[in-house]
Design brief:
The complex is a heterotrimer of chains A (277), B (440) and C (315). Chain A has 277 residues and is mainly α. Chain A is 68% helix and 0% strand. Chain A is built from 13 helices and no strands. The two termini of chain A are 18 Å apart. The C terminus of chain A is likely disordered. Chain B has 17 helices and 18 strands. In chain B, a hairpin with a 2-residue loop joins β9 and β10. In chain B, α9 crosses α16 and α16 runs antiparallel to α17. The N terminus of chain B is likely disordered. Chain B starts with a helix and ends with a helix. Chain B has a five-stranded mixed β-sheet with strand order 2-1-3-16-6. In chain B, strands 9-10-13-8-14 form a five-stranded mixed β-sheet. Chain B has a two-stranded antiparallel ribbon with strand order 4-5. The chains are: A mainly alpha (277), B alpha/beta (440), C mainly alpha (315). Chains in contact: A-B, A-C, B-C. At the A-C interface, α1, α3, α4, α5 and α6 of A face α1, α3, α4, α5 and α8 of C.
Chain lengths: 277, 440, 315
């Protein structure tokens, strides 16, 4: 049964969202405007909002000045594979931390959160040495494999989601003789679909926008990702802002599309209401 | 039950296989290429210029060298800068991990601080008769520390005072007679500043904007930042205090709050207010000429040497780069690397390519040759022999950071020029002493 | 017959008891097994870096040279270092400004975006867009927008009769400017809240409707409590992230923290020490001091969470 909203609520909601929405879109519009500017119109005062002419060619230039499509392919590989890793490992670990009673789970939980509190700048070099010893520097492996073992942020998140579910939900299934794994796979996971989609989205975005990882682990321009490629618009004393903005917009597109589809499943009303039995 | 577990295991295995194949793909590529060119020595060359004239100059340099040296293959690799201007974090991690590149292009400034990550070239240079007098003095000096040569100097950059000729005419100043003394400069700055009520709509000059670092003005006023014989930093040299006092004094006169806010959001080249006509005069480098051509070719501007208190003895702040060989490179790779950097830095072929970027070779003879017919560059070149380089000390980056913040601190009321510079001098000298003690 | 039945019931009850005992043992084994990938991950990827960074904090490590033990010298040096104190103050002040704002703004926006209206998908995407802009572009865009002389924001404000503040040019307005920029990128938090809202059963709302509750009561008595595990998550992550804030202010100020060091945050100073000043040992000491600060604050929030976080599985 869909939850129906009153007219007043609808109007108020629309008003606030539209006003806020314009504010939020503002910087993005500026970005778009810059992407369409010619060099001559970039640094004028007063600033020009609607460039005349609109240089759509900047978008074409953006993908030809740098090896855009190679970088795109590499970024897709890294992002998709690391996302698969995250959604396989994190819900499993989180389920254990949230819904199974075992000795040591609280300590593991605390360690998980504690790991996030150390600034990456000091673990960067030792971690690099670990991967050097494993002979994995210069490959995509350091950017992908770690997620297959778990990512503290998502483990924490999924644990919270699992804890949102009513108590003793799965005990009935346990008594009936289901294995833990069956409970996990057949009952808990489907209930946490929004959460799993969320961490998939986040991991994808994280890999998509990761700069430092590709910077220190990749040594071959053919393997570079989009974020490294974006830096190529910076010249010695000059940055080609119009091309950089155009490239940034193109880079954002796949994630926008992914997000649009993920959020579609966040529709209030389609939830665990009927699963209680 | 089993089917589910199996599904997971299969998925995991497939993913691992995909990841593994992809990663081994890249490493096998390099193995194959090694086998093909077994008789050629391959060296990797890290730089941070992918596009624009600088990117072109790298490409051409590598191409020309590879063609003229059939036994060596230089493989350039673009490395993105992290934060400021440097690619040191990638270099440091590579050295720590034991797989550095054979050659790297780096800012000369601050190289002494990561000296331990380099293969020093003092002996190599001596053996090949490469000496200081082949280069501009600042080029050699900035690449040396306590008699050791850290790398070969590659190029140099020079700075001058740019001024907007149209705006000069507008306020009654002679566009063909730009300021030579500090007094004339101050006068012009005040005349050129336009206000609209409380808001400043055009600044005549913002002393620390662009390349107006305290270094620039400190040297213009005749100060020295380092006592060569004692190795002590002298940031509080009376002439430098004078320079800073003048800088902040003028800033306050034109409206302190406004000046700080104007600068903070202008960034580097993005929105350069000189190019858009909101700033009448600016200290910046020879590279800005190319920017103006690109972004506002109709700007009517002139270039003159940086004014000094008495209008004579002009000098300039010189920056530039060096080619270094990281630690751990040996044998034929070392020979190849040395051959490459020698070609880039000491031969006519290598150095002439600086013309592509509009910068200056580190060798005076080549500079004069390639820019013989370029009138605009002459003002920058004339003053090069008298160029000043930043002191080569073990706390170079820290000193740079602190000095560049000094005007901002004073404008926000957090000290006087004397007190701020005294503190910096003390801090940096302490830091150097600490580092020297630790190195023992 | 009755005797058999009661015997059967008794046996079944016994079986259930036995089952429960072995179920718990079973659980313990599986709990450990399910967590195994992560345990291995910690040992493989985090143990060595974390332990070595503790070790380095007691040395003069600079990544490339010989390491020698210096004991507590780094820690003592930090306590005497004025920039260290400035950066701690800046970071804590920023966190105090940013965390409550983000939490309030995030929840409010998520609740709004959860109300079924026609263009819901489009609105949700609009608020999410800013998180996709690369930092290099974000910093330049905001520098232009917030330019006190020529930026659009002050221009619009002046049309409404307000004299715009100097934003990034004033040491007093620089942190609020950063908080503003952080709110712009709040889309990430909002997604998490949206996902969390999906797990709140409709049954509760329908029951409340029958009781005649208005939207405020529904929000306070149903939504917020049931959402509290997720709110808790966002709050903890917000604390951890703001105390480690680095990329945006570093890019904005080119590593200087200007004006007047007002944007010199802890991680920026840490990074400069690690890679620019060649003092990785010093930076490691900074990292562990930060760790202690964060974990103290987090423990405090954890303790307080028993009062307001409502886990359905733990009544």
């Amino acid at each position: 049964m869909k939850y129906s909203t009153g007219l007043v609520t609808k109007i108020v909601t629309y008003t606030i969202l539209i006003l806020l929405g314009i504010l939020f879109l503002f910087p993005f519009l500026w970005m778009f405007s810059t992407a369409l500017k010619s060099d001559h119109q970039m640094f004028t005062y007063p600033p020009i909002w609607i460039p005349k002419p609109m240089v759509w060619k900047n978008f074409a230039d953006a993908v030809t000045t740098i090896s855009f499509f190679t970088f795109l392919k590499n970024t897709l590989i890294v992002s998709i594979l690391s996302t698969i890793g995250a959604i396989i490992s994190c819900p499993l670990v989180a389920y254990s931390l949230a819904r199974i009673n075992w000795k040591g789970r609280n300590i593991l939980f605390i360690i998980t959160i504690a790991i996030m509190m150390i600034p990456g700048q000091v673990t960067m070099v030792p971690m690099f040495i670990v991967f050097t010893k494993l002979k994995m520097v210069g490959t995509f492996v350091p950017l992908i494999i770690p997620t297959f073992f778990g990512v503290p942020f998502y483990i924490f998140l999924m644990r919270q989601f699992f804890k949102q579910l009513p108590k003793n939900f799965e005990d009935a299934a346990r008594i009936d003789g289901c294995s833990e794994f069956q409970i996990y796979w057949r009952i808990m996971l489907p209930l946490c679909q929004p959460a799993i989609l969320t961490i998939a989205l986040f991991q994808f975005m994280s890999s998509w926008s990761d700069f430092l990882g590709p910077l220190i682990y990749l040594n071959n321009e053919e393997m570079y990702t989009l974020q490294l490629g974006l830096q190529q618009f910076k010249q010695a004393y000059n940055t080609q802002w119009n091309l950089l903005m155009a490239a940034s917009i193109l880079i954002a597109l796949p994630v926008i599309i992914l997000y649009f589809f993920v959020q579609r499943s966040f529709i209030q009303g389609i939830s665990l209401g009927g699963m209680k039995g | 039950m089993f089917s589910n577990k199996l599904k997971i295991i299969c998925l995991l295995l497939t993913s691992f296989m995909i990841a593994g194949t992809l990663s081994s793909c890249s490493s096998s590529k390099s193995v194959n290429s090694n086998n093909k060119k077994a008789d050629k020595v391959e060296i990797s060359f890290w730089h941070n210029w992918a596009t624009g004239p600088a990117g072109d100059s790298i490409k051409k340099s590598v191409l020309d060298f590879n063609n003229s040296h059939p036994n060596i293959v230089v493989k350039p690799l673009f490395v993105a800068t992290d934060g400021g201007d440097s690619i040191t974090s990638k270099l440091l991690t590579a050295v720590a991990g034991g797989n550095p590149p054979e050659v790297m292009l780096a800012s000369r400034y601050g190289v002494a601080e990561y000296m331990d990550a380099l293969t020093l070239v003092t002996d190599l240079a001596k053996k090949d008769n490469i000496t200081k007098d082949m280069f501009y003095p600042w080029a050699w000096d900035e690449a040396s520390y306590e008699g050791k040569l850290l790398g070969l100097p590659y190029d140099g950059t020079s700075r001058a005072l740019y001024y907007n000729k149209d705006q000069f005419k507008e306020v009654g100043l002679d566009p063909e007679n730009p300021p030579k003394t500090i007094a004339e400069l101050t006068d012009a700055a005040i005349k050129l500043t336009k206000k609209d009520g409380n808001k400043v709509t055009r600044f005549g000059l913002i002393p620390w904007f662009g390349e107006g670092w305290l270094y620039t003005w400190g040297w213009a006023f005749g100060g020295e930042f380092l006592n060569e014989s004692t190795g002590q930093v002298t940031a509080n040299d009376p002439k430098i205090v004078q320079a800073l006092t003048w800088m902040t004094g003028l800033g306050k006169q034109l409206g302190a709050q406004n000046v700080s806010s104007f600068v903070s959001s202008a960034g580097t080249n993005a929105n350069d207010p000189f190019i858009s006509g909101q700033l009448s005069m600016e200290i910046t480098g020879n590279w800005t000429m190319a920017s103006i051509k690109q972004y506002n070719p109709s700007l009517n501007y002139g270039v003159t040497n940086i004014p000094t208190p008495d209008g004579t003895n002009f000098n300039t702040f010189v920056g530039g780069r060096v080619l270094i060989i990281p630690k751990g490179i040996k044998g034929e790779k070392l020979d190849a690397a040395w051959t490459f950097i020698k070609w880039m830095c000491t031969t006519k072929e290598g150095q002439s390519l600086k013309k592509i970027t509009g910068e200056f070779p580190a060798m005076p003879s080549i500079t004069k040759e390639i820019y013989a017919n370029d009138k605009m560059q002459q003002k920058f070149i004339d003053v090069l022999p008298n160029g000043k380089n930043r002191p080569v000390i073990l706390a170079g980056n820290m000193m740079w950071d602190q000095l560049s913040k000094a005007p901002d601190l004073i404008m926000n009321g957090k000290g006087t020029p004397q007190s701020v510079l005294d503190q910096i001098t003390k801090d940096i000298n302490n830091e150097i002493a600490k580092k020297k003690a630790q190195a023992k | 017959m009755l005797q058999n039945m009661s015997r059967d019931i008794h046996n079944t009850r016994q079986k259930k008891k036995i089952c429960k005992g072995s179920i718990e043992k079973h659980q313990r084994k599986y709990g450990y097994i399910f967590a195994l990938p992560w345990i291995i991950g910690i040992l493989l990827f985090y143990a060595y870096p974390l332990l070595s960074s503790i070790y380095y904090s007691f040395t003069n490590y600079n990544v490339i040279s010989k390491v020698s033990w210096t004991g507590l010298e780094n820690y003592e040096g930090l306590l005497k270092d004025p920039v260290f104190w400035t950066s701690i103050t800046n970071t804590i002040v920023y966190a105090l400004m940013s965390v409550p704002t983000s939490v309030l703004m995030g929840i409010s926006l998520a609740l709004l975006l959860n109300i079924p209206i026609k263009a819901q998908g489009i609105f949700r995407t609009i608020f999410f867009l800013p998180t996709l802009v690369p930092v290099v572009a974000t910093s330049i865009i905001w520098q232009w927008l917030l330019n006190p002389q020529f930026g659009i924001v002050n221009f619009v404000l002046s049309k409404v009769g307000i004299a715009g503040p100097p934003w990034l040019g004033s040491p007093y307005w620089s942190k609020p400017s950063l908080v503003l920029m952080a709110q712009w990128a709040i889309g990430n938090m909002v997604i998490i809240y949206l996902a969390g809202l999906q797990d709140i059963s409709q049954d509760y709302y329908e029951a409340a409707d029958l009781d005649g509750a208005n939207w405020f009561q529904k929000a306070m008595c149903i939504t917020l409590p049931l959402l509290s595990p997720v709110i808790f998550f966002n709050m903890i992550m917000s604390i951890i992230n703001t105390l480690q804030v680095f990329t945006l202010p570093y890019t904005l100020t080119y590593g200087t923290g200007n004006p007047a060091n007002s944007l010199m945050f802890y991680s920026m100073y840490l990074y400069n020490n690690a890679f620019a000043y060649m003092k990785m040992g010093y930076a490691s000491a900074m990292a562990w001091i930060l760790f202690i600060i964060i974990i103290t604050i987090t423990l405090f929030v954890f303790r307080s969470s028993t009062k307001w976080v409502f886990y359905q599985d733990e009544n």
